[in-house]
Amino acid sequence: MNEMSVAKNQGTNPSDFPTTHVLVLADTHVATIQQLPAKLSELVGAADYVVHCGDYTSIKVVEELGRLAKRFIGVYGNSDQPEVKEQLPREATFEVGNKKVVVTHPYFGGPPWGLEDELVERYPEADVILFGHTHDRHCVTKNGKLLLNPGQGYPTFIHPMNVGILKVMPGGVEGRACSLDEATLDK
To answer: The whole model's pTM is what?
Structure first.
């Protein structure tokens, strides 16, 4: 998968706030972030927010991201250890600029068909829904909501590590899901 998924959601009431870059991760399934490519640490340090949509599988990854990121928001996934589930919520909501962002690991999600409709219905107040679980890189606007799944958060012999980039601007929000190699935070 070399193509990038890109979606835009234009805001109707621009306000005076700086462009904010959110690095979105999910399904990393590692014991420590040192097991992931070095470029990830650079992006974590440069992003205004780092969001992880669950399935770290180790509390150490949660602690490392919390230490390296300017602002860290995370939820637990179905494969996470009890100590991760004790420290993080199942879902989280936060605001960036004038956008309400929901973070979830939809354990109810299996195959990707129909999942977007269910997420839009489940989170009617959200402008942006960040989610993991399916390991499928995906970014789309549906019913005025931007839905972004960064995809598989670890590299394999066949597939690269994927990330999501959410860019919140006074006039709206843009999202993209891409391989870590293609990822940049355009300042």
So the answer is: 0.90
